[in-house]
Amino acid sequence: MAKTEAKKVDDDQNEGGEGEQPAAPKKRFGKKFLLMAGGGGLVLLLAVGAGGYFFFSGSSSSTTKMANAPTVPLIAPQIVYYDMPDIVVNIQSADGSPAYLKLSVSLELDNAEEKPGIQTLMPRVVDQFQGYLRELRIDDLHGSAGVVRLKEELLRRINVAAAPFPVRDVLLKEMIVQ
Prior knowledge:
This protein has helices spanning 2-20, 31-68, 115-120, 122-134, 143-161, and strands at 80-83, 87-91, 99-109, 167-177. Strands 1, 2, 3 and 4 form a four-stranded antiparallel sheet that branches. The protein has 178 residues and is of the alpha+beta class. The chain is 53% helix and 17% strand. The relative contact order is 0.11. It is elongated and about 105 Å long. Helix 4 (122-134) runs antiparallel to helix 5 (143-161). A hairpin with a 7-residue loop joins strand 2 and strand 3 (99-109).
């Protein structure tokens, strides 16, 4: 009997010993969670730092560029304008009724030395303009897009016709469609 009681006591101590020991406190966060949160915080910190660097360094470099930019001279540019003779041409209408276009143009030249050269080549320029303008339709001239296309085409044609003398721009003084 003594053996059975001793064995019982040992079993009770073993079971009771485990049951009586205080349980380990529950962990709220695991190691993986802490590593992921720390890594995310580090990435966020780096992103904020990089954004601040690019924001503040970009503005300082633009001010440096502006400080190193060449200053604009206060002298007026050497632009010269040459007024072409008025051009009146008949243009095509959708219904076949007669329509006319009156065009007054001023040419923008780089300097005054080009004016006599342009004047010498004016018959060729007028011929180029008339050939183009006669092919236009009234619908081609509607709206600001039509006017921009007209100016671009006239500029292209005058630079071909007055080849050694470059024209910077064609300025429309008057454009009447009847």
